[in-house]
Amino acid sequence: MEPIKLVVLDDHNIVIDGIRAMLIGNAQIKLIGDANDMPSLLKQLEKELPDILITDIKLGGNMTGIEIAALVKKDFPSLKILMLSGNTEDHYVLSAIKAGATGFLSKDSRKDEFVAAVHSVYMGQTYFGENISQVIIDQYVRQSVQHIQDPDKPLSDREMEIVQWLCDGITTREIGEKLFISSRTVESHKNNILQKLGLKNTIELVKYAIRKNWIAS
Questions:
Q1: Better-predicted residue by pLDDT, 205 or 216
Q2: Apex 157 CA angle, 155 and 163, nearest 5
Q3: Domain spanning 145-211 has what CATH number?
């Protein structure tokens, strides 16, 4: 399997060097380039397109990382965006999502969380770091839900997947590890499922799933 290719955009070289050092010995993730501003980033993207662009929000130039993310997504729609910033206020996270980012981490995140976020974003999933407001996670989950018209299956494919695992007795932490998302995001999905179905807890959800023949009794 080819390694996941990253390019890092940050106006502080120590951050770039830190990520490079962190990935030493990791055969699954490869840092193929870095940039300090928009012109150098474009040169890098034209030279070799990575799988994921990791960018800060506040950069030293005239453009923010959010503005740059929105622009490069137009020219390189397949490029995935992971924000890595010390600015984790709600309005920054929401603006980053609108710009096309599917992952958001605080700069004080641990190595294992960084690696999990990279894998999640690479697989087309979302990842919100532990320091991101639960309000934002709940809002994103509600907005991204796929509403299916079949009254006997009112849940999205992702929600059905989570239901199956919950009914198998798998914890939200374990489900998060399987899906490369945080356990808080799994909890938000579960709460959204319960709200959709008018249920109160996991026990009622299991009974409902059996009654609807979603799982074997």
A1: 205
A2: 65
A3: 1.10.10.10
